Amino acid sequence: MNSPVVGRRVVVAFSRVLLLAGLTAALGPGAIRVVAAQPPNLVIFYADDLGWGELGCQGNKDIPTPHIDAIARQGIRFTNGYVAATYCSPSRAGLLTGRYPTRFGHEFNSVANTTGLRLDQVTIANRLKALGYASATVGKWHLGAGLEYRPTKRGFDEFYGTLNNTPFFHPTNFVDSRLSDDVRAVTDPAFYTTDAYTDRAVDWIDRNKAKRWFLYLPFNAQHAPLQAPKKYLDRFPQITDEKRKLFAAMMAAMDDGVGRVMAKIRELGQEENTLVFFIADNGGPTASTTSGNGPLRGFKMTTYEGGPRVPFLAQWKGTWPAGKTYDYPVMNLDVLPTIVAAAGGRVEPDWKLDGVDLTPFVTGKNPARPHATLYWRYGPQWAVRHGDMKLVVSRGGGPEPELYDLATDIGEAKNLAATQPGKVRELQALWDKWSAEQAAPSAPDAPAGKGKKGGKKKQATK
Fold first, then answer.
1. N or C, where is the chain less crowded by C-beta within 10 Å?
2. H or E segment at 248?
3. 78 bridge partner residues
4. Residue 309: which of 338, 339, 329 has the closest Cα?
5. What is the C-alpha to C-alpha distance for residues 265 and 271, in angstroms, rounded to an integer?
6. What distance in Å separates the CA atoms of residue 84 and residue 100, rounded to the nearest whole number?
7. CATH number for the domain whose boundaries are 39-362
8. How far apart are the C-alpha atoms of 443 and 447, rounded to whole Å?
9. Does residue 111 contact residue 443 with C-beta atoms inside 8 Å?
10. Which of the residues 57, 67, 106, 142 is marked catalytic?
11. Could you count the other beta carbons within 10 Å of the beta carbon of residue 146?
12. Burial grade of 459 (CB within 10 A; 0-12, 13-18, 19 or more)
């Protein structure tokens, strides 16, 4: 049984300011020209195990990502973009609810393997359904395999993808809700998940072009196993390392997919009225896939910056600035309230969200930080960022909390704990209070924070 669709007191504002009259000619590049005349269409691209440094706009010179980079060029690149958890399922639980996943016990991936996203949690699709949106999930779900936990029971109209992690060729645990709720393995040798997800996304947008629509497209790229068709591998003859070549080919496929979706939106004349996010679900696992986290310390499943700090891009042409970098910390929890507000709804206090509407911040209406403090908890690993100071206990570090000034030490190399004990106590008190408000994990995990790295080691080509 699905949770009730909340939105009881949602107020839909179908009328919005159309133009900032008389200013168009005077506006320079990147200025805000138009406020959307109607609630926008909505897209979330969610990459898997990407790595903070693995896009052209993030500094990667080896693997071209022109279509993803275009989102940053025509929109905003958040240099301090975070997710609320350091790996797959909890990160998705935070994105779709706008709440820290630890608030409702979704601390580990094992929740998705035993039950799923708790049924009393209301998703972004639930919120948007109350506002009249059509919606679809296309890609990797990873928030529960049971019928009651699947996207079509959590507010989405359609689901095409896999319930959990899967190979890219011959994917398992696959569902196409247009056909049935049956779970199957795909036997078609030409089927490659990234391409197939793009095909379905483009088709779904075309079918729903006359409606207000929301597309959630969580690619399984760049998760292991590393697999890619020859047509993408052939783009990288200069890369001799097999693992890195596969990674590059997979990213080319994902970038092409983003480009095809955006091309369909432009073809329909809807780009000016579509709010787009591109975010990674967590940091790259590095050794298992070659994913690079740039200057950041740590990787997936750690609480150093390389775990929760991710590529985070957004575009809303004509409404948000273009070609802007935004340096204050934001989190994937902000996506839900931002989208609900953009869609004409109102976020109610009893939703108890941890995210905020980013529009006032990115447009300059509110010059403050969206968040004074951000928190993480992953078993014995944890972190709190307050302003630019971060207190962290992470795999790869010592047993005592370490203190870093991220404004001057993005790589968390100079531990200030010994010289600033007062700041350590201040941040420890903040985290202790927050942690006491969180739920106990609803399912245990493999020894949290010890040993296990994200992804499998198997690679394949086709």
1. N
2. helix 242-267
3. 326
4. 329
5. 6
6. 6
7. 3.40.720.10
8. 12
9. yes
10. 142
11. 11
12. middle
* Known active-site residue 88: yes
* Of 51, 457, 459, the residue nearest 226 (C-alpha): 459
Angle, vertex CA 255, rays to CA 51 and CA 276, nearest 5: 85
Q: What stretches of 105-146 adopt beta strand conformation (E)? A: 134-140
**What backbone torsions phi and psi does residue 45 show, to the nearest 5 degrees?**
-90, 125
The mean pLDDT of 61-65, rounded to a whole number, is 96
In this structure, which amino acid lies at residue 205?
I
Question: pLDDT at residue 5 above 80?
Answer: no
Please check whether residue 389 is in contact with residue 369, taking contact to mean a CB–CB distance below 8 angstroms: no
C-beta of residue 253 within 8 angstroms of C-beta of residue 223: no
Buried b (16+ CB within 10 A) or exposed e, 369-397: ebbeebbbbbbebbbbbbeebbbbbbbeb
Beta bridge partners of 274: 41
Helices (H), 349-445: 359-362, 421-437
Let me know if 142 is a catalytic residue: yes
Pick the CATH number of 373-437 from 3.30.365.10, 3.40.50.2300, 3.30.1120.10, 3.40.190.10: 3.30.1120.10
How many of the other CB atoms lie within 10 Å of CB of 457? Answer: 12
- Quickly state the pLDDT bin for 443 (edges 50, 70, 90): confident
User: CA-CA distance, 115 to 26, in Å (whole number)?
Assistant: 55
Determine which one of 57, 67, 88, 371 is catalytic. 88
Cβ atoms 270, 34 nearer than 8 A: no
Global confidence as pTM = 0.89
The pLDDT-based confidence of 38 (bands split at 50, 70, 90) is confident
Mean pLDDT value across residues 388-399: 96
Please calculate the CA angle 354-103-360 and round it to the nearest 5 degrees: 5
Token pair of 66 as six digits: 């022109």
Torsion sign, CA atoms 157, 204, 283, 147: positive
Task: List the structure tokens of 109.
Answer: 């991936």
Q: For residues 132 and 252, what is the distance between their CA atoms, to the nearest angstrom?
A: 35
